[in-house]
Design a protein that fits this description.
With about 120 residues, this protein is mainly β. It has no helices and ten strands. InterPro entries: DUF427, DUF427_sf.
């Protein structure tokens, strides 16, 4: 949609994307659904930091595209995936910005997991 606002990060609403630099494991109901050494940490304003995992490091046969879409004026259009774990569907557990805005371009090709639907562990 062309009428949606596009906002740039500012000192009042900063957004940073940096390599996590540590091993990240994502589990759903105890099953490993993603594991990577190439995660990115996105820190937006005062929100909790989010780990963005390369899509290639997610167990592909557990992913099902969802029809859900949302919009963030700082990051762009988000698409979603359901996760299938032991025959159970966890709806919209993952989001991704397929063509993120330039300020967060590094997260292209990465996905993030909702903390209430997945356990994301970053090694110390």
């Amino acid at each position: 949609m062309t009428d949606r606002p596009i906002l740039e990060p500012t000192p009042a609403h900063p957004i940073t994307v940096t390599p996590t630099g540590r091993h990240v494991v994502v589990r759903v109901n105890g099953a490993v659904v993603a594991e990577t050494d190439a995660a990115l940490t996105l820190q937006e304003s005062t929100y909790p930091a989010v780990q963005y995992i390369p899509l290639a490091d997610v167990v592909a046969d557990r992913l099902r595209p969802s029809d859900t879409e949302t919009y963030c004026p700082y990051k762009g259009e988000a698409g979603y995936y359901d996760l299938i774990v032991d025959g159970v569907t966890v709806a919209d557990a993952i989001w991704t910005y397929r063509t993120p805005y330039p300020a967060v371009a590094q997260i292209a090709g990465h996905v993030a997991f909702y903390p209430d639907k997945a356990d994301v562990t970053v090694d110390a």
